[in-house]
Amino acid sequence: MTPSSIGVVLVQLGTPDSPDPVAVQRFLKEFLSDARVVDLPRWFWLPLLHGVILPRRAPKSAALYRSIWRADGVSPLMHYSHAVTRGIRTRLGDDIRVELAMRYGQPSLKQALLTMVQDGIQRILIVPLFPQYSSAATATITDAVCAVFAKQRFQPALRFAPPFFADSAYIQALADSIRARLDPATPMDWLFSFHGLPQRFVDQGDPYAAQCAATARLLARELHIPDDRWQMGYQSRFGREPWLLPDTAQRLVQLPQEGKRHLAVVCPGFVADCLETLEEIAVQGRENFLKAGGERFTYLPCLNDSAAWMDGLGELVKRELSGWLQKR
Fold first, then answer.
1. Of 2, 61, 99, 202, which is the most exposed, with the fewest CB atoms less than 10 Å away?
2. What is the DSSP letter of 252?
């Protein structure tokens, strides 16, 4: 087995091709049609999705995407994901094939996998770029990869990198990126905001909430933030059923009333800035916090393409390739 027969696929959730309502609706249709994301009965959910939710939500979401879209014509998520992919290629060397794929939208996960196999890649490492495991994100990547090869005559050897919610390389990269922008000793309170998930998913065995809590504890410890100066929240609620609490949007309004008027917000569940961080937190969250009486709101960007993160992710990938790489 030669190193050139090894491939790595970095997988992000996805992004619309443009902030146009048609492109946004196409993306949302694929995303929200996944039974892992919304597991309601198909006979109930799909007519509701196509008849009510997509026609209403797509134009609104498109306007929000336009507010954060980059001048070079791509979304922040796409920009940073490509930058990280280039960084990992540099760190792994030319003998390892590294590609970026999106679970929903382009570049296609299916196409990335099939192209690798056609080019002679026999061993493939899949790296979901989600620090914490959730069935609505991580598991759907596993489903999609297995579906690609379910009817193929040749199936490559596959590995799936585990969630890195407590990995020292990830925690250290997070802490370093935060310290580069804000001294953790600054007298203020901290909110670690993670993407939400229906409470029912966790009750049924999804480890997401426990892994988010572990990330928050480890990050606070690394930054030497006292326990009474930080807390967690879950954002991006969707639908009417109970979701994980506390709710970030509610906490941003409540904190000033509790005397916590200087706030730093970190989103450790996202490795790249996107609509949920740049618009929902850095814009809407800031506005709501200040309206409620807050005096200082500091949003700390995601890891994005920081050198510390690319170094950390590179080490994580090398570790998962252990045994496949020949010593040289």
1. 2
2. H
Distance in angstroms (rounded) separating the CA atoms of residues 13 and 113: 16
- Which domains, ranges and CATH numbers included, belong to the chain? 3-164+307-320 (3.40.50.1400), 168-299 (3.40.50.1400)
Distance between CA atoms of residues 142 and 214, nearest Å: 23
What's the rounded Cα separation, in Å, for the pair 125 and 317? 8
> What does the block give as tokens for 51?
């008849």
- Spatial CA neighbour of 201 closest among 132, 297, 146: 132
* DSSP-H helix ranges across the chain: 21-32, 42-48, 54-68, 76-92, 109-118, 138-149, 168-179, 199-203, 208-223, 248-257, 275-278, 286-291, 307-320
Question: What are the pLDDT digits (tens) for 11-58?
Answer: 999 999 999 999 999 999 999 999 999 999 999 999 999 999 999 999
Contact status, residue 87 vs residue 310, Cβ threshold 8 Å: yes
Distance CA 300, CA 54 (A): 31
Q: Can you tell me the distance from the alpha carbon of 48 to that of 46, in angstroms, rounded to the nearest whole number?
A: 5
